Amino acid sequence: MNQPTSNEFGFCRDGKVFINAYLSFPEREIGFVRNSEEEALAYFVKRFDLAVSKVKGLSAEIEAAQNKGSFLTKVLQMQTYLIEFDGLGDFKPLLAELEKHEAYLKELIQANQVKNLEIKRALIQDAKEISEEEDVVEATDKLMEVKMKWVKTGPVDKQFQDQLTAEFQEVLDAFFLKRRAYFEDKNRQIDEKILILQGYIDNVHQLRKAEDIDDSVVKVKEIQKEWKNVIGLPPKKQSMLWKNFKKANDMFFEKYNRIKGIDYKPRIDPRVLELTTMTGELELKLRDQVNIVATADLAKAYLVKWKEISSQIKNMDRSLAERFRTICDKIFEMNYLLRVISYRHANLNEKPRIEQLKIMINQMDYMAKKEKGELESFMAESEATRMMEDKITLSKINTQKRKISMKEILLTGFKEELDQLLNS
Fold first, then answer.
1. What Pfam families does the annotation carry (predicted)?
2. Is the dihedral of CA 51, 52, 56, 57 positive or negative?
């Protein structure tokens, strides 16, 4: 009977390959003999190099990593991997190296957990102090920052985890109950103020119908004084009510002037007139495709001028402001489009208008779709990293949405013009 073929780490028996017992692990079957026992042993000796390579790779990753504690699970998994690995070699130094990593990482994690415990306790105290502040809106922003720090802080020892989480959540829940009550009360006050202002508007309309116009004009002027005392409404609501109030007053005094035979010409604020003129000029120049670079420079200069003038106007016309912003956005997008196209079509303005439009449509469509895709990726990443509540992130998203919207508006205009030319 032939003796089984063996080496320092294993042997062959009955057509199978076995690894010798080592440490506390018994001998076990790791494979089959295919051609010869010598080849089988050589194969599994060579295969052991894979285990050595994986341990070395993991050690190098731990050495290079900043967040070393996250590798503990990988070390434990690697230990299981080695114990069950089908190969022949000296596993003892490899397991010893992993045990060394395990001890080091557990000590590091414990130290980090102690540090995290201190941080989270401090964050709970910060949250408690912030929740007591009177300015609920400002306190909400501060609490969101604290919550972001809490999420970014690593885990603590399991014996403290549930208690800390519950304590922190209790502070947040109590604050947001207080916040809800605050806004419910604020909304109630706003509703009351809206009713008061709406009452003033209705009163002016009723006074316009009164027979004693002299008595009515005194009352209207009293209402105008009382209107100024009602403050604290949301800007959009305040603006809407003011427009209705102004309209009611204008109608009243039109009747008053007509009865009294007064030829009244409403005074136009020269600053508003200048802003309106600037807006109209840019709207006309947008059509001048050849000189779009100069128009973009003018729009930049007008933006500075607009900011300076509008800051001096107490009740700025929001529709005019939006109109100005829209035309500036269109000019900048048009300028960018033509600059990109010029790299391939330097003589664009010399081409027939139909060909110009086709080139502009293709390029603008490509840019709009590209920016949409980039925005969707950015929003998904921000959602995943819980950055959607960050003001800078929201501002970036809103700015990009507006740019895409302007591109789509211009694109629609190009397509409509092309359809008209093709069908004329």
1. DUF349
2. negative
